[in-house]
Write the structure tokens for this entry.
Amino acid sequence: MIDTLLIDRTPRQTRIALLAGGRTIEVWSEQPNDPLPRCGDVYLCRVTGRADAMGGVFVTLGGDEAAFLRDPTLHDGERVVAQVIVEAQGGKGPRLTRRVALPGRAAVLEPFGEGREVSRRIAAQDRRARLLAVAEGLSVAGGLTLRTAAATQSDAAVADEVRALALEAEALRAAVRTATNLGRLWPAPPGVVRALRDHADVARVAVSSGGVLAWCREITAPAPWTHAIAWNVAREGHGLFEAMGVEAAIERAVAPRIALEGGVELAFAPGPALTAIDVDSARASRRTALDCNLAAARAIPAEIRLRGTAGLIVVDFIGLDGDNPRKQVMAELRRGFARDRRVQACHGLSPLGLAEIARRRGGVALPAAMLEPCPHGAGGWWVSAAALADDVARRIAREAVRPGGMTVICAAEVARALADPQRGGLAALEGLAGGRVTIRATTAGSRDHIDVARNVA
């Protein structure tokens, strides 16, 4: 169970880490003023072509990027309001739905829907009847569904949350009525809000600075259920993620190959259609095939969740003889996925030793967010210039406890990423440093070797 939520922020990037028992479970990141469609964004779009074989249509969101909307009843040129449910990745555009929803902790309000429902996960009939009465007693426009969390909250708290959602829904309907141009009508809630919404029972919420705390309180203020959160400013400051082992977990999550105890290794090969995971026992010569597969089955669910891997995932286990060993491996694999709500199916093992996993897509996976193709190697990947620039900003934030300006010496492409005005540019870095920041591009050394030094008066 998730027990700790960590938040670190610079003007370039916000990062959120979910921990359980000191172990990093998930890491999310987002950039301010990100022009790319994010899960939860609502757009006014236009149909540009039919995709009958896929049961839907292609739409434009107002820019160059095309998106897919599963609704075969629409026609070319028709305008429609839709919400992003899967972000673009792997060369595929985002996926949309016409069922627009504004989720809260205890309720989900559909601005253009109707009816009153209670989550099917609430099995007790007396609780269902009470919550349905609460839902039907609220005079708000749209379709309303009370979530599982509503069963543990007071009727007054549920009503307060629904009224807050109703204000958002009315603002969205007003934006739709007045919209003339294609584009984003309503932004998705910030990642901090989504993390707090979906993990209500965390024991600790720690932020990296007082400034980050003020920002968190500002963006969460509209949600009534956030008012009781006991925020904690971590003494580690902007070194919070490193102190808690999150930086090491991120480094592991973007590695194409990782080693497990006992010599077993896992190789990850993400592609546009599926992600392949190979179980390699070459360094585990003293272990049986079953032992190696069980070690891999115990590790794979956590690695998939940490990386944010989604869609179709195929695991190539070491070949096993007999049904019983195969059943043991699959039982271990399914046990690991028990707490992952995004896993939709887990099948196998096939006669060839393959397990197939379907995991619901959402945001962009960590490797896709941080890596880019390496121009010097066929099929290789390296850390993107933007990700290196994000790390520079965090290093500046950690050094900012001492007065004075700073000098950054880095590769030219990293220097360009640091100066990107969409991410705050030089002004944002100088705000972090509390003084002048000088960026010097160099061709000496490796691309990922970056010096950040305090200027000496």
